[in-house]
Amino acid sequence: MNTKPHNSFARRRLTVAIAMLAGVASTPFTYAQQSDTPVIEELVVTGSRIQRVDNATSTQPLSVISAEDLSSSATVDIGEILNENPALLSSVTSTNSIGGTAANSTRSSNVGGSALNLRSLGSQRTLTLVNGRRHVSGIEGTSSVDVSTIPSALIERVEVLTGGASAVYGADAVTGVVNFVLRDDYEGVDIDFRTGISGEGDANTLSLRALIGQNFDDNRGNFTVSLQHDSSDGLRAGDRSFLANDGRATGDVNPAFRFQQGDITAANTPNLAQYYNFNNTGLFPYGLRIPSAATFASNYQNEFGTAPTLTAAEQALFDRPSTSSPRALLPGRTFNITSPYGVVALGDFGTSVPLGQEPDLNGNGTSDCLDSFTGYNSSLDGAGSYGAVGGCWVINEAGELVSYEDGLVTGNFNQFGAAQSYIAPNRPFVIPQDDKYSINLNGRYELSPTMELFAETKYVYHEVVFGGGGNQATDLLYAAPDNPFLPSQLASFANNPGVGFVGPGGLYINRDSDDWGDNESVNRRTTVRFVGGLRGSLDQWGLDYEVAANYGKFNRHYKSPFTPITDRFFAAIDVTTDPATGQPVCRSDLSATAYPRTTPFNFPAYLGGGALSSFFSFQPGDGQCQPANLFGGKGSISQESIDFFTYTRTVKEEIEQSVISGFVSGNSSEFFTLPAGPVSFAFGGEWREETSAQEYDSYDQGVLPVSGVTVDGVAFEAGDWIGDVSNAQSLGGSPGNRALSTSASYDVWDIFGEFEIPLLSNLPLIETLTLDGAFRRADYSTFGESDTFKVGGLWAPVQDIRFRANYSKAVRVPNLFELFSPEQGQNFRPNDPCDVSQLSSAPNPTTRQNNCVADLQSKNVPNENIFDASGNYIFVDPLSAGFPGVIGGNPDLEPEEAITKTFGVVVQPRFIEGLTVSLDYWDIVIEDAISEISAQNIATSCYDSPSLDNPFCELLDRNREPTSAQSGGFTFLRQVQLNFGEAKATGVDLNVNYGFNIGDYQIGLGGAVTKQLELEFIEPSNPGEEAVVDDDLMEMNRPEWAGQLNFSVATGPFSVSLRSQYLSEMALTGPIETAVQNYGPGIFTDEFFSHNLSGNWDYSSTVRIYGGVSNLTDEKPFATERSYPVSPVGRAYYLGINVAL
């Protein structure tokens, strides 16, 4: 056997014509130097454990991306390259991993990772393999592999098998399999260096790869080592004009429904100017909702005793809401009641100092609170004001107190273009900064002519830096009248007492604290994997076998700095003057029981109603507390104070996978042969164990760090839980949210088998007729047994044409995260579907309003808060901030089942050499689909269902206190995994590849087009009720048409290729069902094209110089997106050199 090459175990190699068949037009062809005909590296294409010749003989669509395709790309992220494949266009890449897209959001724990997503049905339904074997997960919450950890230098090819493959490869292969095949017989030294830079001179990238391989012992053995380092500087929002200063567009209620600055003037709208005049009626001249002309006329007559004669300008204003879309998509959306350095309100909110009599600091003759709608709206004294939100003044970076300047008002809490309320719009990363180091060692050794030992090892360290936004804190922070940091201009007014919940005077400040620190989070990931086994042949039976053991471990260490420790924060901002020194001091240093106020709305909730009930994380008077100056502008809070009340939040996560597997494959030729040929088969078994663990820091878990905490005479010790001391759940971050360190595991035993039966061949109109199938039985420790199967057929009436069909059943059991992730505290802030401004966005506004009325009334909301005197619905969401809830797994989940059908045809006309065309229809239906429904979808689905008797309303609760300022507002939301109904996706793939010569030039043409016909998620319904269908097609990242076109030319040592991508129009935001209704016809994107140009020069037989331009035409992300459908980097250049010795 020593003289045989290392492909003796039935490995067949293909010519270029066959290899072209396999491609989904992934990239241009690669040609051998000085060749007269197009040739690419010979490939073995399987798609199952039965060795098949090519895609043309597979009953399911199978495509291949070659190593040359990967190496010539402008990016070092494999996920981005594969994302160009229309079947994988919804994959998460490192570029779009911050926030994902509007339709494909990602957690912060996954930033920097790449997860593949076939058919837009979720990465948890795409199985990623390496050399046909499972790989440990690298994406929290799924079994998805972080493909960025797979060394590109070692990749020989990537096989993409679309359609259900659970019977062949096991659970998670619901929509298909992506298999990375690595080199295992490389000889030589290959060193590759590349660097890249954007057209703006930033976003630098660097990649250094080394591949070293050597055969030994007369070619019986081989070892291959891969070393790789990739780095990227990342990109911040402020680095691009279209993202800087909150430039990304966001949807909100259309400002056209409210009076805006300049709408009302004495000259053009005299009746409105008279009525919307604070001195006349207590109303403000802009910011309030535009009534109907009839309502205004009635109110005007009631106020002034005469009916108004409307001018044309006034009538146009009254008509504007009826001619405007309900929502608008604009840049610069802000939470206008707060700002980085503070929005300030008097502590009485107008109860002791009437609105209009507050200070006039800018000297314009008007109270500063009447200089802006935000100031007016903060008072409880205005006829149309909301009250107890925002404030009249803004503190700028220099610490100056200036009047608030409004933008376009959309509601009580939001505006477009209120520049003073930005939250660090330029500092956050939009592409993470990362550094990655990997080492892989693969080897094999022939123990005998029929037995080979093989091993694979890898270690990857990946550090990702992201975040960088503002350090948000609680709104309505209280400063007592004796706080020495109060602005001198307001000190005298701070002594005015308030009434009710607003309390004893002082000032309130809403401060997002942009100056605590950089707030850059870090994910440090490590991935290790070991594979070892034996493979060989049983010559006496003509069989091949493999037995392997596989172990992988993924660790993530997450750090998020400047997280506030709640009781320390409130202690630090409760400042008074030390009578002994005359210096500012924490009040707790003077009195251990002087517990500070929290907020008027008792948030965060501790015992004591709006105040701390004790100090939990430090001993008052021990000298730790350092006073914080909230009123001095940027940098006014000392570093000592920041160090006292913040900590670095940490989360540690570990995922382990152990697999033992074995299989035998071959054919029946040693036993029998059918007239059309032998029967091919494979059978085997697998045991797999998955383990997951999360560990949170003691502050998140609410563990008391000190002893001596006393509540109601009961003393508590260090190590006790804060929930036993107060209503809080944790000490840091959001005190209503507790994190629990947990672990979980399951194991599964599988047996499986495959067959391929040649039924007929070499007959008239039956060149080939083949039947294949597969069956797998799995026994899970969590769910018991489940069966999956597939059956397919291939018919070639003539040599040029092959028809194929496949039918399969797949079962995916819930993963550990979906099942056992503990319910952790979480803050939510969905738009309230019952807010009057949200009704028009409903698929059926009448149904939503009826459900809202029924629910609000059942929650004791006063009727005057629901209807006006004329019976019009008027409920307004009373919340100005998020509310608590929980997020977690669901141990009651059931496995989901999928039926996948594919039908296709492959054409290889003999009269056009080098041309391959394939057309495939696919249909995927998933029953009891498992999904984590978003908070927004939970809220809207509750009220848009035919009745309130639905599973979504069970996950929500509202404030039931009729006298509360937040009566009817959401108070709790439970976001868990659900078997929510049915998911359905259908479409058609067309793939064309053609390679030919013109003189000395080799030309390659490739194209892939996917037409998605359906992409629906069907929610469960009660008997007799119509099911709610959520159609995702044409939503963001869900185009109806997607295509890829590749063109290449090669001659002599030179080659040039152009890769182009096409996406059809999509809705920029919102559910597609109501996109036009809510935003108008302009809500859709234009058709999108992007182009990448690359070139190669074989300088010598050992040196290749390459380079290119990505995003050749400098396309921008869509208006609502950070990094879709292209990176915000824009046009970028790269240059590399490859030396192969």
What does this structure look like?
The protein has 1141 residues and is mainly beta. Among the domains are: 16-185, Ferric Hydroxamate Uptake Protein, Chain A, domain 1 (Beta Complex), CATH 2.170.130; 255-324, no CATH class; 333-421 and 474-510, no CATH class. Helix content is 10%, strand content 38%. The protein is built from 17 helices and 47 strands. Strand 31 and strand 32 form a beta hairpin. The longest helix is centred in the last third of the chain and has 14 residues, at 845-858. Residues 1-46 have low confidence and may be disordered.
Mean pLDDT: 88
Name given to the CATH homologous superfamily of the domain at 16-185:
TonB-dependent receptor, plug domain
Shape: globular
What is the count of β-strands? 47
Q: Give me the CATH architecture of the domain at 16-185, please.
A: Beta Complex
Q: Work out the strand percent.
A: 35-45%
Flag low-confidence runs: 1-46
Largest sheet: 22 strands, antiparallel, barrel
First-last Cα distance: 27 Å
Q: Bin the helical content.
A: under 10%
The top level CATH class name of the domain at 16-185: Mainly Beta
CATH topology of the domain at 16-185: Ferric Hydroxamate Uptake Protein, Chain A, domain 1
Structural class assignment: mainly beta
Number of helical runs? 17
Q: Using the CA coordinates, give the radius of gyration.
A: 33 Å
